[in-house]
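I am still getting used to backbone structure tokens and would like to learn alongside you. Please make up or recall a protein chain and show it to me in full. Would you write everything just below, so we can both look at the same thing?
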Amino acid sequence: MKKVRLAHLYPKLLNIYGDRGNILALKKRCEWRGIEIEIDEINISDSIKEHDIYFIGGGQDLQQIEVSKELQKHKEFLAGERDRGAVFLGICGGYQLMGHYYQPHNGERLEGISLLDAYTVAGGKRFIGNVTVETETSTLVGFENHSGLTYLMGETKPIGRVVVGNGNNGKDKTEGARYKNVFGTYLHGSFLPKNTHFADYMLELALGEKLDPINDEIEELTHNSLINKAY
């Protein structure tokens, strides 16, 4: 039987706006296909072993401070996992910590783990609302609620172009980031249940093969109802 090993990083601290729904989406989409999925919750002071997929959700600055410090212990290991082809998904605060750093308005810089060549600084405006993003192959939808402004550099490229909403920084029309199999995005809501094709893409990267199709009629209706919906 095929098997996917998934690590949910720091769910007790970073699980805002229903980000756990992303884990549930991956779990169910494996189960519906007869694929075994092993989910490990990694909390503060836990060790981290090799996994196929790593997920880290969003949270407030206070929680990000604690997670930032903890992640430094695993920075080298997680960079190695990225380089061997493991799949990562970071949402909002988790996305910011996958870059080089996040600089709040007040307080010390929060160091990231540099899986992405990106950095984030606090902005003066909060971006709130639905988002529609066009990628090279599909459309993504979700809900953003952040004041951090993220900028990409080097070989890290955006997931797509913002059609509705603000995305990474409200200026360059980019949303999210990708380098190798590492993905970051500001889309909550939860992201993967609203974009099941992206959930399957992550699983295909993790397994190294195409998945059998399943009936996504209801999921596609939900997805399509949110395209270009601003509020």
